[in-house]
Specification:
heterodimer; A: mainly alpha; two-stranded antiparallel sheet; 76% helix; B: alpha/beta; Rossmann fold; 34% helix
Chain lengths: 415, 530
């Protein structure tokens, strides 16, 4: 591979590279603790909601940088309502699930109608939900239970959203079924990489160079292998990971390969062009917010299952996590460009910083507030690095320019 | 011979992978109007950016001698200090600010900490008078037309004490009357001793106003012609620009075969979406036949675009009335989607604003209006299936986009190139490709050659001819008379929301078309007087 090609690849994947270095940094700082099997599991189960909500937020942002501020509060309220349905009203799990998804769809339709058909700016329309749902959720919990939290969910529900699959046999230190799944995934990924290249070459299209495909396959295999090995050591694959992977694959497919994805990109890229090309912008906006609400319900169920309780603290700042996952992951704040893969990298970076900082804080007895400070600084640094490396700007030219301005003002100052 | 004000010697500027300027030499004498002409992408704008310091000293080779001294501009402010002021092609005024505020933006009048508004507006009025504008400087920029906005830009440049004024395509958004006024203003400034550089595509304007013409091609200066000594006929300039003999500016069609009426619009009336009592299209009836190019000529603001967009699925205007027949059958098109389904296409005049998604690739833009065609292998089978197919055949998409790039000779390294990175002419080709792929029977082309160079224009004309040769119907809206006359089989003349004339191509001349407009204007005045 020539150097300019290599540079291009690096530029495109700058954020992934940053993620790698940040991870290494935390491995060193925590003396390897973050690299332990149990921390792999917690990284996944703690951040599952970011991936789910980030996917929904990605679809909203693609339509023109629109965001949904209400997701965090809606997660709280949906959890509370589900608690009432499932625990207090003793409804069977399938019916309770059906009803809660119904609630999500109703909210999505209302929100979509407000934004797409009444042209209310999305952040105003969702700000109302941000305020109202937090209050409503807390009120429901207060009236439903003396402790303001609903617990005692049926295992038929918990099994769906928490716990593990491909568990290790009793007494075994490692889950072999988990390893087998990992190997199968690696084989599928490598096969797909090479088949795509082969297919392109056969039809005479431009294809990635062979060394690049090999390198890509090796890296992907290493990442999948590492994750499944660590999960196997920790006793199996978390159920939420199955959900997350399924959602990511589906949405990646929708964005990259379907008419729907193309419409989202076009509306965000230039809504007038999209309209005159026969695309119904209103349908797209409506779809984005309906979709977001449904995904919020899934995130709510994940949270309830993880803590085995519906409480009023659930979902605080989730909207910010989802938005930052997208922005860090290179989704345009103006709409029209962004990928699921980018969002995943962004979400993982945030997750790694969260986990790493809490490990460092407990190790060195630091105040938890420092976690917030470092998180802010690292996020900003990561995005600045990403932007500068993507553009043609050079660090040196940034400084040279400053010097010019100084010289200029010196020349022109009255002396 | 008068004094040389500006000399640019051996300017070479390279961007990663491209040599944008290659040993360019330019001499501008004091008090002359110097025109720079060249195809899009020839390097005219790059040259001016080097001159004005947008590309700072050190990023190019060669030197700039201005007023006898070698200049090293690091910033646009440096060159403005010396009196070199550039007016860019795209108007850079803020619509919600007043003329005065705009004029002194970044150059505010008053003390260091406080703006003196009285001084601002009185000075602004002074400069407005110099450019012959009678509006108050307290008028909001959005309330004046583009012609006047261009004058405000010039007044703004004067306020910076310009000695060398550079105008980049100053008339591209103006109608003929405003253009003429602007060119006359330039001549007036010349008489007062100002030096000007004008960059333009419009050769008739250049020969009208310029003292010297420098032709730039592929990043090099080809020739500098003196308008008094040398032959500056359009053919010679065009030849220097594109390096080929243009035997005919408009390709002739062979086997003209005009069939039945394809689309007919009757008594079409449209109202303005905001000023709801204003008719923007008034009782218009037109038709277009199979295999025919129908031109619609009119000045800016005549209602041509409004007519076209209201036909195209009511994408503009309110209170639309009238009948629309396609292939003999009356249809009601409520939105662009239905219009496309009825094989109608509207190729916009505003390719950046509502024609293309600049942040997307050529490939994605080409297929945007007809994504459905990429999802089905067998159309008949698809009609039977109740579930719409949504998965895009990416291979097919790549093939389609490549095919059109080849067919329309779009200059690009690959179909993955972002449309925003292409030159105007190539963007226009992508826009045409997009609508050709939508497989329409009737195409409405709104200013299909606006802002693109002569070579690309010729290619677009060829594409139009190919389309009608294949039995399509084309309605071409244009404000360039030679183009309308050269391309159309039949011409409608539109003025003040009405069709004021219908002239077959054989009888069309610049004179009788303009006569239609002038006559209708008088009639309208007559009615108003009664």
């Amino acid at each position: 591979m020539n150097t300019s090609g290599a540079k291009k690849v690096l530029k495109k994947n700058a954020m992934a590279l940053i993620l790698f270095f940040v991870y290494i940094f935390f491995v060193i700082m925590t003396r390897g603790e973050i690299f332990s099997a149990s921390n792999f599991t917690s990284l996944i189960s703690q951040n599952a909601y970011v991936f789910v909500l980030g996917t929904g937020m990605l679809m909203c942002m693609l339509t023109g940088g629109n965001i949904d501020l209400s997701v965090g509060s809606f997660v709280c309220m949906a959890g509370a309502v589900f608690g009432v349905l499932s625990v207090n009203a003793h409804l069977s799990t399938p019916i309770a699930l059906l009803l809660i998804f119904g609630l999500g769809i109703v909210y999505g339709i209302v929100l979509g109608f407000l934004i797409a058909y009444l042209n209310i700016p999305p952040w105003i329309a969702t700000l109302a939900g941000y305020l109202a749902f937090r209050g409503a959720g807390t009120e429901i919990l207060n009236s439903a239970s003396r402790t303001s939290a609903i617990t005692g969910f049926p295992s038929s529900f918990l099994k769906l959203f928490s716990g593990k699959v491909a568990k290790s046999a009793p007494g075994a230190s490692i889950s072999y079924s988990c390893l087998v799944i990992g190997i199968l995934c690696i084989i599928v990924v490598i096969l797909m990489n090479f088949l795509t290249r082969y297919g392109k070459l056969k039809k005479g299209y431009e294809a990635d160079s062979l060394p690049y495909v090999i390198l890509k396959s090796v890296l992907e295999a290493a990442v999948i292998g590492l994750i499944t090995y660590k999960l196997a050591k920790d006793g199996g694959i978390p159920v939420v990971l199955v959900w997350v992977v399924a959602i990511l694959l589906i949405y990646n497919f929708v964005c990259e390969k379907t008419v729907i994805g193309r419409r989202f990109m076009a509306v965000g890229g230039n809504s007038e062009t999209a309209r005159l090309s026969g695309i119904n912008n209103k349908h797209v906006m409506f779809g984005a917010y309906l979709n977001m609400s449904v995904l919020s319900v899934i995130a709510a169920l994940m949270m309830v299952a993880r803590f085995q309780s519906a409480n009023s603290g659930a979902g605080v700042n989730f909207e910010m996590d989802a938005i930052s996952a997208c922005v860090v992951g290179g989704v345009s704040a103006y709409g029209g460009s962004g990928t699921v893969f980018g969002m995943v990298i962004g979400a993982t970076l945030i997750g790694v910083i969260n986990l790493g900082m809490s490990l460092i804080c407990s190790k060195f007895n630091l105040n938890q507030d420092w976690q917030q400070v470092v998180k802010g600084v690292v996020l900003l640094a990561a995005v600045v690095f990403d932007i500068v490396s993507k553009s043609d700007m050079k660090w040196s030219s940034l400084f040279r320019r400053r010097k010019n301005i100084k010289e200029f003002s010196k020349e022109n100052s009255p002396s | 011979m008068s004094k040389v004000l500006l000399e640019m010697n051996h300017i070479t500027k390279t961007f990663p992978g491209v040599k944008a300027l290659d040993d360019v030499n330019l001499r501008v004498e004091e008090g002359e109007i110097h025109a720079i002409v060249g195809e899009n992408g020839a390097g005219k704008s790059t040259l001016m950016n080097v001159l004005s310091g947008i590309y700072p000293f050190g990023s190019y080779e060669g030197d700039i001698v201005y007023d006898g001294e070698v200049c090293k501009f690091h910033h646009i402010k440096d060159s403005e200090k010396k009196g070199i002021v550039i007016i860019h092609q795209e108007l850079a005024l803020l619509p919600n600010m007043t003329i005065g505020e705009n004029m002194f933006l970044g150059n505010e009048r008053g003390s260091k900490y406080c703006i003196d508004w009285n001084k601002t507006y009185s000075e602004a009025d002074k400069y407005l008078e110099m450019v012959g504008l009678t509006d108050s400087s307290k008028t909001l920029v959005k309330d004046i037309g583009t012609g006047k906005q261009q004058l405000v830009e010039i007044a703004k440049a004067l306020a910076k004490n310009a000695r060398l004024l550079i105008l980049d395509e100053p008339t591209s958004s103006l109608n003929e009357k405003d253009s003429k006024a602007l060119l006359d203003l330039m001549k007036e400034f010349k008489a007062q001793g100002m030096t000007m550089i004008i960059i333009s595509h419009k050769l008739n304007e250049v020969s009208y106003v310029a003292d010297k013409i420098t032709v730039v091609r592929d990043g090099s200066t080809i020739v500098t012609l003196d308008c008094e000594k040398d032959d500056i006929s359009e053919d010679i300039i065009i030849k220097a620009m594109v390096n080929r003999e243009m035997t005919d500016r408009f390709p002739k069609r062979k086997n003209v075969n005009i069939g039945d009426v394809m689309m007919e619009v009757k008594n079409w009336t449209v109202y303005h979406p905001e000023f709801t009592s204003r008719k923007v299209v008034d009782d218009v009836s037109i038709n277009v036949r199979e295999g025919e190019v129908v031109g619609i000529y009119g000045l800016m603001g005549a209602g041509r675009t409004e007519l076209a967009m209201s036909i195209f699925g009511r994408s503009y205007g309110i209170g639309i009335s009238g009948t629309l027949k396609i292939a003999g059958e009356e249809v009601i098109l409520k939105n662009p989607k239905q219009a496309i389904r009825h094989k109608l296409a509207y190729v916009t005049e505003d390719r950046k604003g509502n024609g293309l998604v600049l942040s997307n690739s050529i490939k994605h833009n080409t297929t945007l209006a007809n994504l459905k065609a990429l999802t089905v292998k067998d159309e008949a089978a698809d009609r039977r299936s109740p579930i719409p197919k949504l998965v895009i055949d990416k291979d097919k998409e790549y093939e389609v986009a490549s095919e059109y790039v080849e067919k329309l000779r779009t200059k690009t390294p690959s179909v993955e190139q972002l449309v925003g990175n292409l030159s105007g002419g190539n963007q226009q080709k992508v826009l045409l490709a997009k609508w050709m792929f939508a497989d329409p029977d009737i195409l409405i082309l709104d200013e299909p050659t606006r802002g693109i160079d002569v070579g690309a224009k010729y290619e677009i004309y060829c594409i139009i001819n190919d389309l009608v040769a294949a039995g399509k119907s084309v309605i071409m809206i244009s404000s360039e008379l030679p183009e309308v006359i050269g391309m159309s089989d039949r011409i409608y003349v539109m003025n003040e929301a009405k069709i004021v004339g219908e002239i077959p191509a054989s009888e069309a001349t610049q004179n009788n078309i303009m006569a239609c407009i002038v006559k209708s204007g008088k009639e309208a005045d007559g009615i108003a007087n009664e």
